Amino acid sequence: MKSKVPPNVFPPLQLSAKEQQAIVDYSDELVAETLQASEDFLTHHRRFNPERWKYVKTENHLHVYRSRRRKGVTVELPHLLSLSDMSGDTSTEGPHSTSLSSADSRQDSDYLTDDSLLERARPREVPLLVVTGKMDGTVEDAAYGALADNEARWRLRDAYIGDQYDDQKILATIHSPSKDDPFRFLGVKWATRTFGAFIAQRDVVYVESTGLALSPKGERVSYILMHSYGLDRVPELSELGVIRARLSMCSILRPHSENKVEVFCRAFNNMGGELLEGVTVNIFTDTLLAVGGLVECAYVKKLKWQMSAREPEAREHATSVASRAHAPTHCATCHHSLTKFGHLIHSGAACQVCHRVICSKCSTTKRVGVDFVDGGIMQKPMEFCPECITLAKKLSAWNIALDTLPRGGSRVTSSRTTSCRSKSTY
After folding, report:
1. pTM of the entire predicted model
2. H/E segment holding residue 41
3. SS3 assignment, position 35
């Protein structure tokens, strides 16, 4: 569906050093408290209090729960102070990281949410969702798949986690990937999405933060944070019929076993308008369960890197094959014949990495992004052999991310120390 929003409705943001530091500190604290909540979840033997949490759905070994509504008197929470409230500067509405006492905790919270920035940001009528479970891959694979530091990588990631934005733009970049942490990104993003013919288009302005961190126990984990952030220079587009949604999603991915990652995510989504709560929960649940696509995205990135790294070898191989009198007659993997009816029909396809010819049973088709055109990713189905697929899974995402680092990059240092320490600290 065509977007209602004109192109370049929001120019790039020029954030002051103070604004950048406020975003750094706030996002760091959100990640740190989610990391601590995941530690508490493990301490409580991965159990939910059935009086507080309701099971929603399971898919691919990932389980979704939502907070229950609880009857009783709730304490009115103080309004989050903005940077403009503190300094007189009206350029941003970014929240201030002031903690609440336990007496101010909401009635529908527990050890997963008490005294948290997340709870203060969440409207009381909007349920909190928690995702737990396991998925294939490694922590570095998940971090590499999550990295979306430019619009091309952002579109590529969307193709594997099911986000179908109409418009999307990186408004400001605060942290870029570096040699210290090639998965690090912190910036402000804006996107619009249409959910159907009878649902008004939504847009969202949010801070996105990705990278590696150390848990309080010294375990390396991956994180991805998307949290709405108010900025006066990115006003709501109500005159265009677009409703501003407000969301928060923070995932912690830690090693579970060999080639398995444990997922812990806290999230809420206030889509605004008059959508029924059940519709909102169903839409957002499917979005959260797509986190497994991050690892698949990383595998495809690594396959594409292999294709580029072995391009000279591939050209030499193609020249050698062309000089032969006949095309290969047997699969390079299983050695079964590729010919039928007395060599009249030749089957099989060349692996896009090693260019050996393989049969249909041995080949695996992957959709690979080949170009970034008209604001989207053009994907092309490509064939790969089992050996190259296996190698892609084993290749170090860290090393490939280092090899593909963009030039330049900036870093703002956090003014405080939290239990969530960036990779650059060790």
Report:
1. 0.81
2. helix 17-43
3. helix
Extended strands (E) in 161-245: 167-175, 185-193, 202-214, 220-228, 243-244
Provide CB contacts within 8 A for 378, sequence distance 6+. 369, 370, 371, 372
Core vs surface per residue 326-353: b (16+ CB within 10 A) or e: eebeebbbeeeebbeeeeeeeebbbbbb
To the nearest 10°, report the CA torsion of 184, 185, 186, 187: 170
Structure tokens at 370: 């080949």
Say which amino acid occupies 168.
Q
Residues of the chain under the 70 pLDDT cut: 1-2, 70-111, 114, 313-327, 340-347, 370-376, 407-426
Report the DSSP pairing between strands 243-244 and 421-422: unpaired
Domains, the chain, ordered by start: 17-298+409-425 (3.30.530.20), 302-397 (3.30.40)
Summarised one tens digit per residue, pLDDT across range 135-148 is 999 999 999 999 99
Largest Cα–Cα separation, the chain: 84
327-346 pLDDT, tens digit per residue, is 678 898 898 888 764 454 45
